[in-house]
Amino acid sequence: MKVSIGNLATIPFWDKLRIKRKKLIRLWVAEGFVKERKGNTMEEVAEEHLTELILRSMIQVTETNAAGRVKTCRVHDVMRELAMTISEKENFCTAYDGNESRLEGNFHHLSVHDRGEKIRLGRTMSHHLRSFFVFKTDMCTSFSLDAALSKFKLLRVLNLQGVPVETIPSTLGRLFNLRYLNLRDTKISELPKSIKKLRNLQTLDVWNTNVRRLPSGISKLTRLRHLYMYCNNYQNSETSNIANSMMAPTGIWNIQCLQTLACIDAEEELIQQVGKLTKLRRLDITKLKTVHGPKLCTSIQKMKNLLRLCVTATNEEELQLESLSLPPSYLQKLELIGRLNTLPLWVRSLSNLTHLYLGRSYLQDDMVSSLHGLSALVLLELRKAYNGKILHFKAKWFPKLNKLKIVELAQLDSLVVEEGALPTIQELNLIRCLELKALPQGVEHLINLQKLYLEEMPEEFIQMLRNDKNHDQSKVCHIPTIKIVCLNGQSQVVETLC
Question: Where are the domains of the chain?
Fold first, then answer.
């Protein structure tokens, strides 16, 4: 791979902050830094570039996920200064911090940082600018977004994430070359109809905004690869995913390039047609009714490239997903939120599954014995997923599990870990399991456990850890960090035992 200034200069825009791997990859594709290769998506090629830069120590990994994969990264301060210096000399990119009264230059890439001063852009900026990043600047007082968009007609990238803008002007439609539009965490409530003119758009991100319906013209954006809609906070609130839902535009299933569709309401026509999106890598679908389950299974079976699937049921309705006889063989992440009579048999066949989240399942059967064959699993979260009294992890089960999170299992009163079970686990979270009043039996066998996190657990449980004379206390002395979070009235009290 030939390392270009563009590969490195995209990251310095984030200053000392980290940038997510997936976001960086989408930006590289949008900027045109990645060339197509037969047999690979441009995102896969970009990931190879990122790996090589990391191996060369030109990019630093700042966070990895439970599977050890890069989650966020940054550029070392020295490398950042070098990249920015060379970029400015070559008129490639610059950062505006308000120190100059007017920004002049033929730069291709511009970032504006939060300084509060009035931004004045010189005439030459409008003719060459390809990407425009704004970092939480007060847009209402600093400059006119409408005026800026009218000038920057050749923009490929527009990043307004976290900026408190409430409206997007119709002049957006004039940016015929725009490939990346990030409006995440803004205050907008609708998109202009002129967005249908952005025929080159690859990424549209309106996650965690007030937008509840996309213009029908979205279905005409045939080059769209990634579509992020609304904030899916079901893990923190049982009803937020219902309140913040969004209906997909009619015809969205005709965008054959689509790789990411997160998140959409389960409507009758959509469920039947979404199977046409055979290139999908991620699908998040919510408000699923019981009767829709079999039809959704039929569509999912056509998505051979699916890597991540999240299905959420409406309120207390059941998830009927047993008819998925041939699940996507490459599936890595699965989230099922809703009542389950039994765990679907096909889940046990997912040999590549690394992340599994079960929420509001209220299963009666021993789910652990059903899941132990998932040898690639690195993260398992059970939230209101089990109504039984005991979870028993036997020897050699879950050989790669890194993190186990058990939340609000109302009947659970015993957690047993045999010697040889969970050999690689590093983090164990126990949250609001009110009948679990004793330490997990066999916790002393978890020799690689680095963190035990306890939140709103019974007082008897907590006292065992605080009492130095208690025999059980010695069972956790090998754990470097034990964090206890309790409620004291309306406030939280955090206590760390090391």
Answer: 5-78, 388-498
Q: Please check whether residue 106 is in contact with residue 127, taking contact to mean a CB–CB distance below 8 angstroms.
A: yes
Residue 103 CB coordination number (10 Å): 20
| Cα dihedral sign, 427-432-433-438 | positive
**Residue 389 — left, alpha, or beta (φ > 0 → left; ψ -120 to 50 → alpha)?**
alpha
Residue 479 near residue 451 (C-beta atoms within 8 A) = yes
416 - beta bridge partners?
A: 392, 441
β-pair type (131-135, 403-407): unpaired
The percentage of the chain sitting over the pLDDT mark of 70, rounded to a whole number, equals 85
Q: Are 198 and 176 in contact (CB under 8 A)?
A: yes
Copy the structure tokens of residue 423.
């050999």
Strand partners, 485: 455, 494
Contacts of 187 (CB under 8 A, 6+ apart): 164, 165, 166, 209, 210
Convert the pLDDT of each residue in 420-451 to its tens digit: 999 999 999 999 999 999 999 999 999 999 99
DSSP character for 318? B
Answer for the pair 444, 456: CB distance below 8 angstroms, yes or no: no
Cβ atoms of 296 and 271 closer than 8 Å: yes
**The tokens of 232 are what?**
């899916």
Structure tokens at 497: 């035992």
Rounded Cα–Cα distance for residues 63 and 83 (Å): 22
What string of DSSP letters covers 422-434? STT--EEEEES-T
Phi, psi of 377 (to 5 degrees): -65, 130
- Mean pLDDT over 314-338 rounds to 94
Q: How far apart are the first and last CA of the chain?
A: 45
What does the buried/exposed string (b/e) look like for 272-306 if buried means 16 or more CB atoms within 10 Å of the residue's CB? ebbbbbebbbbbbbbbbbeebbebbbebbbebeeb
**360 has a pLDDT exceeding 60:** yes
Query: Could you report the per-residue pLDDT of 7-36, keeping only the tens digit for each?
Result: 555 665 554 568 999 999 999 999 999 988
What's phi and psi for 335, nearest 5 deg? Answer: -130, 120
Residue among 330, 296, 324 nearest 312 (CA): 296
Tell me if 5 sits within 8 A of 84, measured CB to CB. Answer: no
Single-letter amino acid, residue 26: R
